[in-house]
Amino acid sequence: MFKKILVALDRSEMGKQVFAQGLALAKMSGASLMLLHVLSVEEEGIPYVPIASSFDYYSGMTEQAFEFQQQQWEKWKNQGIEMLQHFSAQANTAGVNTEFTQKLGSPGRVICDLASSWGADLIVIGRRGHSGMAELFLGSVSNYVLHHAPCSVHVVHLAVSAKEAKAVEETTSASTSS
Asked: Of 2, 39, 95, 119, which cross-links 31 as Cys (Cβ 3.0–4.6 Å)?
């Protein structure tokens, strides 16, 4: 069975499902868990952080605005750590040896690099369900991991009812903002 399971998490509902499946697999096999959150521009809800050189090009960008953006970024990072601590505590309570890390970068690459350096024999990752043009332009982290991982990959799919609920929510918010 598995000895080291890397669980790639984000703040979505899917992240909770990914954690639950990773934990169940670890309990069944007696494996250790490594919980990973990647700080990336690809994650939904991430605050915009301007590059310092933007001040040269955008005179409207004041030092106060930059400081505000930096505070938002720090808050975002801290929320990621809190999420990892919460999941880690749950796993430890369930008797599963767990550690966690948060890294900045391209999610697919970071996941594969950590799996290799940590010696993972399984990666548990979610799939948002992008298809067609969305996947072409946004890419697919799960697809990248499937093709570049140094070990087996378990992909958790968003349940059909959750996809339908999200589609209804997006349609509703789009029609009310028009």
From this structure: 2
